[in-house]
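Flavin prenyltransferase UbiX, Bradyrhizobium forestalis. Tokens?
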Amino acid sequence: MSGRQGIIVGISGASGAAIGVRIVELLADNPHYAVHLVVSPAAERTLNEEVGREALARLRAIAFRHHPHSNIGASIASGSDPIAGMIVAPCSIRTLSAIAWGQLDNLLTRAADVQLKERRRLVLLVRESPLHLGHLRAMLQATEIGAIIAPPMPAFYLGPQSLNEVIDQIAARAINLLDLTDLRTPAKIWSGPGFEGV
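Tokens:
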């Protein structure tokens, strides 16, 4: 990776695939980090329906490495791999629950568990509404073991003028939650008032 640290982006099957796409795009532009991409089978369908048939191929092309969802022996499944953090965007309730209770039967949930055990940042953009008590308990459990729950809430006070601006703000906020010195998303990606505070 030529000295770059890895960041994992997992995309699961919840609605909101465009947010995951934007996060990968922003991270791929940063020379300090290398994007490791994991896409669930359900997410492949969601990407196709919500973003377009070419979306997955484009993500694979710009990511440093694309890891098959079923490959639990991939490098990112080990704590010895130099990973700086992980974002799951969007994060389905199934993926949230699997992470919360250690159901590690695929690479996405295994890589997330590795971040937790290594005390690295794990940001979960949980995408569901309304929520029942089981969903809330899964969020509580995930938080208690170290994850950051960050539902993709639009910041209407910034006055976005388009859906793309909403997506940009949510993606930038998720990346900034990794709290990495060399990874602050530039304000120029969204020109609305108040973006500097995101």
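DSSP finds seven helices and six strands in the chain.
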